[in-house]
Amino acid sequence: MTASLPKERSTRKLRADALAILVMGVIASASTIYLAVKQYQSFFVPGGVMWNLPVETATATGTGLAVYSASGAGEPTQVTGTFTHLQVLVPNLNPVSAVCLVLFIGVAAVAALIAIACVVRLAWLFQQGHFFTMQASRTLRAFTWTLLGGGLITSACFHLAANGVEGALQVQATAPEATEWWAWYWIALFVATASGLIDIALRRAMRLQHETEGLI
Questions:
Q1: pLDDT of the chain along its 216 residues, tens only?
Q2: Which of 14, 48, 57, 74 is 20 to 30 Å apart from 197, CA to CA?
């Protein structure tokens, strides 16, 4: 007894799914551009480059922000805590490091936009019924290499910029135990590897389809 095949999705449902991915792709692209602009503005300020510098742990007390409610502004209270980083202004960052910092932001944003465009294109191809095609395979391969190349370039640019900050301030610019960038890169590497395996399966399905059509 053979297992029953899944039901084919209706054309209307496929179009609705493709349209939903297209709309979400536009929103994701706008969000990527917004985050890139905000990150650029957080780094490049009047007078130099603002950097989140690791420092020795210390205790400090500050006044919290005022809380606004229906009854008006509340009285802000004193808050005591410890800090491990300071935002410092680097006025004399060398041009090469500044360019690397711009590339770090720009390449990350472009890579994200290309990855989003690849997903939207795949959805459009599938909606048109182009599943086992070279167009779908090339799009999936572009998605894979974008994640791999974008992750490597952004990581390299960030560390080159950090080296310039270290030279300007004569201190360590990144925490020695920080592993956030490597963690994000391994996540991107996992996704890229998985999409590469899907591309291999897609190409094998294309060969099988071609051989099957040749026997008919």
A1: 455 655 666 667 777 777 888 899 999 999 999 999 999 999 999 999 999 999 999 999 988 887 777 677 777 788 899 988 899 999 999 999 999 999 999 999 999 999 999 999 988 887 777 777 888 889 989 998 998 899 889 989 999 999 999 999 999 888 776 666 677 778 878 888 888 788 787 777 777 776 676 555
A2: 14
Does any domain span residue 121? Answer: yes
Output the pTM of the full model: 0.81
Q: Work out the number of other CB atoms within 10 angstroms of the CB of residue 154.
A: 23
Q: Which domain holds residue 31?
A: 13-215
Residue corresponding to tokens 């925490």: 175
Which residue shows structure tokens 């959805």?
123
Angle at 171 between CA 169 and CA 177, to 5 degrees: 140
Q: Is residue 172 part of a domain?
A: yes
Count: domains in the chain: 1
User: Is 2 a member of any domain?
Assistant: no
146 CB-contact burial (10 Å; exposed 0-12 / middle 13-18 / buried 19+):
buried
Tell me phi and psi for residue 107, to 5 degrees: -65, -40
